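For concreteness, we quote verbatim a single protein encoded this way:
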Amino acid sequence: EFDAKRMLEIDMPRMLDLRYAVDPKTLAITSDGVVRYVIIAKSTGPGAALNAFYDGVRCATGETKSYARYSGDAWHPIENPEWKPLEQARTRYNLALARQALCRSGAPRATAGEMVQALRKPQYVD
């Protein structure tokens, strides 16, 4: 389960009225090389809404998948989740997160701790 108090913000264009952040405690690298995590999207305007997504990035193929969405205090599984190219994803936060922290040279960083360090001091790599 995620905690909004732990969130590390992703560097995104400021023209967006949403702030995106990842809960570092949810970062996990699976045995097949997928990095999974919970990301929160929070609006910055009045009556700020909060949504979260349980997503994954496959660094080797440059793809992303969304497994579930959190809204109304509950998780809702995504029906038939599919891998999509990071460059073509509907939202750009997965691409930003992959470049800033998750992937390096077509592979996941070695540990979740390394990813957290990269989030705190983003260095943009492809």
Remarks:
- The CA atoms of residues 33 and 58 lie 7 Å apart.
- The two ends are 30 Å apart (CA to CA).
